[in-house]
Amino acid sequence: MTTPRVIVAGGGIAGLTCAYTVEAEAARLGRQVDVLVIDAGHEAGGHARTVADAGWVMERGPNGFLDSEPETMALVDELGLSPHLVEANAEARRRFVLRGGTLVQVPDAPPALLGSSIISWPAKLRLLREPWAKPAPPDADETVFEFAERRLGREVAEVLVDTAVAGISAGDSRLLSVRSHFPFLVEWERNHGGLLRAVLARRKTAPRRPRLLSFAGGLGTLPRTLADRLASRVMTGRAITNVARQAQAWHVQLAGGLSLMADQVVLATPASQTSAILRQLDCELASELAAIPYAGLAVVALGYAAASLPRNLDGYGYLVARSEQLATIGVLWESSIFPGRAPDGAVLLRVFLGGARRPDVAGLDESTLTTLARTELVMGLGIADRPIRHQVFRWPAAIAQYTVGHDDRVAVIRKRLASHPGLELCGTACDGVSFNHAIAAARRTARSVATRLLGEA
Q1: For 145, which of 30, 66, 402, 457 is 20 to 30 Å away at the CA?
Q2: Are 123 and 156 in contact (CB under 8 A)?
Q3: Are strands 240-246 and 264-267 parallel, antiparallel or unpaired?
Q4: Which residues lie across from 330 on neighbouring strands?
Q5: Strands 346-354 and 328-332, sheet pairing
Q6: What is the pTM of this model?
Q7: What is the dihedral of CA 187, 446, 400, 244, to 10 degrees?
Q8: SS3 label, residue 425
Q9: Rg of the Cα trace of the chain?
Q10: Per-block mean pLDDT, blocks of 10 residues, the chain (457 long)
Q11: Following DSSP, what letter does each residue of 185-212 receive, concatenated?
């Protein structure tokens, strides 16, 4: 009996997790499987990579994950990484919004909004009427902003919700679908009749507050460990250009002329790359994938002498309200969130710029981005001194944007995919945009692939 082969396109966290889990499932069943991850970049890990140098630990992309996803925690445990987990400092629960040129702390619970200066008294009074808000229009795919304005009022939608959405997804709340990006909010409204009622009900039954975790050496520890485990089964610097069905197998074409055969192919690449790979195989599927937009980001890491800061960095950081008209979406106070992110006597900040608000920013050169980040940092924190360390990371297509109609688009993608047995998709284009979503989707996909190829024990 020949050993079945699985080729995974994309060496980000989803692709690496999928490949590792397929091998783990094969081992559990006492079977052999040939797995190969192919990535166009020169280093596996995707967005979740860490630069560690001379006491600085700088994340290229996300800096942590919540412990609320069992699949992520199980993966960490399987890899023997649990002893290396670090929890965010308690003060990181304090978060701020830059509004009117001033940092204002965001209340950590809805009742605390009534005593906060972050919204006006008319907005507070409107918020109190949330339980009697109009119901959702039947069968409507509301934007996040429309949902928030209908239930919470315009000011809360603009100051808190729109700002938070930009921080979470680099997106525009006026374009994103609430049922696609935040399905739990739609469920809360449907099941409890309102958000306040849902919050009160969940207080009686909800588990403890999720913890924000990372690793002592940075979040890149996880994909790096996966890549190390897979070893020679990871091929970097080669892009898949096309896949085609041939008899009972898949023909996988790589740039440069190399071709490989596989029993199963998993595409864990961004939607635009996946679309290009599938264009010759299925034009409709490729078209639906190409229609998923992405927001670009630039991340500028800035290190300063702690003594040069005009205020204590006693929190997670701050987000910037749209009304400030800045290129900055938010600033993370990295050395205040997790231990060991900066040398003694120094602090590390990361400035996120661009997103849907300023799509031009991610393409700026590094010098311009550094100057822009420093200039706008003065407005938020008043730091005028030159940084002692800086580094720029650019992501032209950083985060998938689940715009209105996304669920319908995904339904078409799933239907078309079902007509190509042995072909799977996983990752943030369709399965949720967070680090946890990517891992959970990859694990589900891997088990499906293993069952199809190897059967059940």
Answers
A1: 66
A2: yes
A3: unpaired
A4: 319, 352
A5: antiparallel
A6: 0.95
A7: -130
A8: strand
A9: 23
A10: 90 98 95 96 94 96 96 98 97 93 88 87 93 90 97 96 96 97 94 88 76 97 98 96 93 94 97 97 97 97 94 94 97 97 97 96 95 95 94 95 97 96 95 96 96 79
A11: HHHHHHHHSSHHHHHHHHHHH--SPPPE
Backbone angles phi, psi at 104, to 5 degrees: -120, 130
Of 350, 354, 361, 357, nearest to 317 by C-alpha is: 350
Residue with tokens 């997804």: 169
284-to-268, 288, 370, 416 alpha-carbon distances in Å: 19, 6, 41, 8
436 residue type, one letter: N
Q: Which of 240, 262, 266 is nearest to 250 (CA)?
A: 262
Note whether 439 and 447 are within 8 A (CB): no
pLDDT score, position 108: 81
List the structure tokens of 171.
């997106």
- 59 pairs with which residues across the strands? 50
Structure tokens at 176: 């994103």
- CA-CA-CA-CA torsion sign (447, 449, 454, 455): positive
Inter-residue contact 308 to 377 (CB < 8 Å): no
- The closest alpha carbon to 277, from 235, 251, 240, 246, belongs to 240
Distance, in Å, from the CA atom of 180 to the CA atom of 404, rounded to the nearest integer, reads 8
pLDDT confidence of residue 456: 65
What the block records as the tokens of 87 is 């929890």
What is the rounded distance in angstroms from the CA atom of residue 152 to the CA atom of residue 238?
Answer: 49
| Cβ within 8 Å of residue 5, ≥6 positions away | 33, 34, 35, 36, 260, 261, 262, 263, 264
Rounded-to-integer distance, Cα 101 and Cα 414, Å: 46
Question: CA 238, CA 399: separation in Å to the nearest integer?
Answer: 23
The torsion angles phi and psi of 200, rounded to 5 degrees, stand at: -65, -40
Say which residues have a Cβ less than 8 Å from residue 204's Cβ, sequence separation at least 6.
none
pLDDT in tens, 205-230: 766 789 999 999 999 999 999 999 99
Q: Residues with Cβ < 8 Å from 184, sequence gap 6 or more?
A: none
Residues 8/205, Cβ–Cβ less than 8 Å: no
Residue closest to 100 by CA, chosen among 119, 78, 76, 75 = 119
| 183-192 helix and 144-152 helix, angle to the nearest 10 degrees | 30
Q: Phi and psi at residue 451, in whole multiples of 5°?
A: -65, -40
